[in-house]
Amino acid sequence: MGVILTTILSLLISSTMVHAAGEKKIRIGLSMDTLKEERWQRDRDLFVKRAEELGAEVLVQASNGNDSLQVSQAENLLTQNVDVLVVVPHNGVAAASIVEAAHKVGKKVIAYDRLIQNSDLDLYVTFDPVEVGRLQGMYALQKAKKGNFLLIGGAPTDFNALLVRKGQMEALKPALDRGEIKIALDTWARDWQPSEALKHTENALSKFSNNIQAIVASNDGTAGGAISALKQQKLAEKVLVTGQDADLAACQRIVEGTQSMTVYKPIKTLAYRAAEVAISLAKGEPLPKTGQSLNNGKKDVPSILIKPLPVDKANIDKTIIADGFHKKEAVYKNVK
Question: Cα–Cα distance between 163 and 114 in angstroms, integer?
């Protein structure tokens, strides 16, 4: 009788465990470069919101620009048995080891917004970075047309910064070849720091005696640094300045007239799509057939490329504000 009872109990326990396993909540590891900027806080919140709506749990880690810390944090997420890793890399080369570590334990990796290089990356979800740069370059040419252009790229360790520059040059090259514009300075801002852009702009203004017609800044943070330097020379509103991300401060500068444009990337679309595909991969479903890919130095990585939008004073109300990305009163608070 004892043997029979033991067998029944064993079967019941086994059945309960299988049932529990069937109902196991999906866990997603979200490894982020930083949460210091408004942009990335928004990405995190939207990603977590969508994942939780779909019944998943998200474990978030942020390394604040420390490559070795990001690698160790990602490895820690893997020890917590996450089903899939989503990584916003600080350094696209260093993050290759994260992909390798995840694959060793049978977990897939999605690169979010920034490409992880030289790795067997499973999927890349981003706004088309080449198109971002192309939009910036096209806008600069349409408005400034001729003269000295200053190019301030993002972090050279961020492969997206290189792709943005590729798009900028695709747009600018015909005018360069015709001799209509000159690249007065082509430089990069370490870690996308506004202070770096400030320094580079100050140096360029000094070197060229303030004769700069356009600053193709790769994001809103670097645009802000450049504009600070322009203000010192009373050149704000006189020199065209591009940006990217539609940060609130940048939108305020656009309606005030000191920043010319930004590239708006509806982050909700990106975050929701990434969360949805992460859950799909966690369930063992096949990779989505996107028909798009970007080469990371080792392979053509299947990619989901979302289209960005150029925004300036003329269409900010119909895009950023209409989408609820920022409230109108916040954008126009400094405009009388």
Answer: 10
- The amino acid sitting at 50 is R
Give SS3 for 317: helix
The HSE-up count of residue 292 (CA atoms within 13 Å, CB side) is 12
Strand 261-264 with 309-312, pairing: antiparallel
The token pair at 40 is 């990335």
pLDDT at 15 over 50: no
Mean pLDDT computed over every residue of the chain: 92
Tokens matching residue 81: 């048995």
Tokens 């490894």, located at residue:
31
pLDDT at 1 over 70: no
Residues 6+ apart with CB under 8 A from 203: 185
- Tokens encoding 115: 């490409």
Q: Residues in the chain, how many? A: 336
Within its chain, how far is the Cα of 57 from the centroid? 22
DSSP 8-state secondary structure symbol assigned to residue 285: P
**Could you report the per-residue pLDDT of 89-112, keeping only the tens digit for each?**
999 999 999 999 999 999 999 999
Residue 148 has pLDDT above 50, yes or no: yes
Q: Are 150 and 307 in contact (CB under 8 A)?
A: no
C-alpha distances (whole Å) from 55 to each of 84, 115, 194, 277, 280 are: 15, 27, 38, 13, 12
Can you give the pTM of this predicted structure?
0.79
Domains, the chain: 18-121+267-306 (3.40.50.2300), 129-265+310-331 (3.40.50.2300)
What is the DSSP-derived secondary structure letter of residue 267?
Answer: H
- Distance between CA 129 and CA 108 in Å, rounded? 23
Q: Report the distance separating Cα 182 and Cα 185, nearest Å.
A: 9
More confident residue, 79 or 24: 79
